[in-house]
Amino acid sequence: MFIRDLMTTNVQTCNENTSLTEVAKQMGSQNVGSIPVVHGDKLIGIITDRDIVTKCIAKDSNCGTMTAGSCMTKNPVTVSSNTDAHDAARLMAKEQIRRLPVVENGKLVGICALGDLAVVDIHVNEAGEALSGISEQTQVH
Fold first, then answer.
1. Is residue 140 pLDDT above 80, yes or no?
2. Residue 77's pLDDT band (boundaries 50, 70, 90)?
3. 73-101: b or e for each residue (b if 16 or more CB lie within 10 Å)?
4. Which is nearest to 132 in space by CA: 99, 90, 76, 100?
5. In contact, 23 and 47? CB cutoff 8 Å
6. Quick one: DSSP state of residue 140?
7. DSSP annotation of 76
8. Is 72 helix (H, G, I), strand (E, B) or coil?
9. What is the torsional sign of CA 50, 42, 67, 23?
10. DSSP E strands: which ranges in the chain?
11. Beta carbons within 10 angstroms of residue 112's beta carbon
């Protein structure tokens, strides 16, 4: 099975000038934990709820004036729609990420989350292994 068979295609995006307050509202209304950042239709980054917390709120910054561009992960790990779902799960584990933007020629065409892999019976083990790899503690807390 390929990522194109599992990915979400109706992806909410923002641009680099969108305020973090607006990004958080988008996340809340869509019930998602990340928003891809685009310039036109080209993917330039991704911002997560964790980014907003650690790079803005925890630093007592103003989420209304900080932008997605100031907090996003630039050049995120991506896959194409022809990527095998097993390979995507292994990539998520290796890179310790829960979401993979799907791009074709730099253009965002979808997103595949760890949960998308888990809903297909054939990929339950891969999703579990990916989550295990993602959840590995890499720092002492």
1. no
2. very high
3. eeebebbebebebeebbebbbeeebbbbb
4. 90
5. yes
6. -
7. -
8. coil
9. negative
10. 34-39, 42-48, 73-74, 99-104, 107-113
11. 25
- DSSP, collapsed to helix, strand or coil, labels residue 62 as coil
Please write the tens of the pLDDT for every residue from 35-70: 999 999 899 999 999 999 999 999 999 999 999 999
Instruction: State the Cα–Cα distance between residues 112 and 93, nearest whole angstrom.
Output: 14
CATH architecture of 3-135: Roll (3.10)
**Measured between alpha carbons, how far is 101 from 75 in angstroms, rounded to an integer?**
11
Q: Quick one: angle between helices 85-95 and 124-135, nearest 10?
A: 10
As a whole number of angstroms, the distance between CA 91 and CA 72 comes to 20
Tokens of 16: 């680099």
Q: Tokens at residue 141, please?
A: 């807390």
Prediction pTM value: 0.83
Buried residues in 39-63 as b, exposed as e (16+ CB within 10 A): eeeebbbbbbeebbeebbeeeeeeb
Domain ranges for the chain, please list them.
Answer: 3-135
Angstrom distances, CA of residue 61 to CA of 30, 47, 84: 24, 16, 41
